[in-house]
UniProtKB/TrEMBL annotation:
Gene Ontology biological-process annotations: nucleotide catabolic process
Annotated Calcineurin-like phosphoesterase domain residues: 40-141
UniProt-recorded name of the protein: Calcineurin-like phosphoesterase domain-containing protein
PROSITE patterns tied to this protein: 5_NUCLEOTIDASE_2, PROKAR_LIPOPROTEIN
PANTHER family per record: 2',3'-CYCLIC-NUCLEOTIDE 2'-PHOSPHODIESTERASE_3'-NUCLEOTIDASE (PTHR11575:SF6), 5'-NUCLEOTIDASE-RELATED (PTHR11575)
Natural source organism: marine sediment metagenome
Pfam family, one: Metallophos
GO MF terms, alphabetically ordered: hydrolase activity, acting on ester bonds; metal ion binding; nucleotide binding
GO cellular component, one term: outer membrane-bounded periplasmic space
Amino acid sequence: MKMIKFKRNQKSLVFTLVFLLVFSCASFIFAADTGEVHITILGTADVHGHIMNYDYYGVCTYSQGFALVSTMVKEVREENPNTLLIDAGDLIQGTPLTYYYGKMMKPDKDYPMTYIMGIMNYTAGTVGNHEFNYGLDTLQESIFINSPQG
């Protein structure tokens, strides 16, 4: 019975992502009547819960994390406002923060990684294999949150 519920939710999620992607591109389609439109597509993958570019175990910095990505995305969007930002999954597992939210999260709390995606105005995202590490309930709670965009 649980698998049937997930398949229905999975279909809803896929439909929603496709719908949002198509309609976010609608302004580009109508703009084509007046001339050429340049679109920039940016992608992230395997963020694995890294918000800051700091390794607390190794006490060093590294070149990943939403803090660095956000800076790069802002720069690209300044050059071209027609920029899509897409994530390929493996987002909600990998750091002590994501472990805490994966194991002890309350359903009424915003999940930090998808909340940040809302702040960064991601166009779309998919689930990766690590999104299933904490079970389907945690996956669903982490996806369907109240983002800053509503």
